[in-house]
Fold this protein.
Amino acid sequence: MDEDARGSTLAESGLKGASQSLASFEEETKTLVKRVQHVLHEFPTAIPFIVLIVGIIIFSFAAGSRFFAPFNLSLVLQQVTIIGTLGIAQTLVILTAGIDLSVGVMMVLSSIIMGRLAVVWGWPPEVAFALGLLAGTACGFINGVLVAWIKLPPFIVTLGTWSIYGALIILVSHSETIRSEDIDRMAPILHWTGHRIIFGHGALITYGSILMIVMAVMVWYILNRTAFGRHVYAAGDDPEAARLSGINTNATLIGVYTIAGFICAVAGWILIGRIGAASPLGNQTANLDAITAVVIGGTSLFGGRGSLVGTLVGALIVGVFRDGLALAGVNVLWQEFAVGILIILAVTIDQWIRKIST
């Protein structure tokens, strides 16, 4: 018997008695906590909806019938309009794993440019309005270029531009507030967002709130029905993989920050209608409330996961909690304390949910 035959015989004898059963793998039994974690990972907006419902139930008992009064509910919507609009812009940025600390000052700068051009310098209101929108868009474009092309961290870039745009507000406005009467006389178009539709029983809605909803629908469509929207999510989830798959991540980032700047300019128009004036002190710190709404709404600070619906619900949560606590007689100090707790809980839950994908 040659060596090949002898080796084959030995191999066959060695396999005698070996198990003939196929390999099997037992599925890991998921605990209730794991199942909840999976559900929340699949539906990130579930948590803010639950928090909103719980908040409404709590304040319906704490504040009584005053909370559900039509005028009060209308007031909550008016209060969250600016936060919600800026939250739309902030959501776009945070989906790319960035952050924009300058959304508040871009909003105010745009409103000041609209007001000064139309009222102080006598430009046609339509031209002043268009240039105000262009100014906000340009500010966003600058942020995008610094982040995408210069490769600077978004936090540092927008912290720097927050100071720069803030200085421009003082320079352009000369620290002067343009009064409501002057805007009504010279540029009534700037007050359009403050006009109200009254439904009776004290219920009303402003055109600014309607504009916020329209902006939300448009951006939702972009994120969920266009290639650019898919690129935004991909760039936030894994920028290197997105680049290797053929996505121009630099162009995507610049586009995101530019659109965010335009939305902030629209928020500046809404701001004029909300407060009735163009003031250099007009809610420059609204960026913090916008970030709060985005985070509470379930959008991950690490990018690639979140939705505009969650952001709008997050803005409503902030509005409901502040309004409910105020009606219940809680001090403003503790209102801010409660919002801070909400932020920490939202980020903690986000970290826990993200573990499912690691």
User: Anything to note?
Assistant: Residues 43-51+72-350 form a domain with the ABC transporter involved in vitamin B12 uptake, BtuC fold (CATH 1.10.3470). Strands lie at 196-200, 203-206. The CA atoms of residues 60 and 67 lie 6 Å apart.
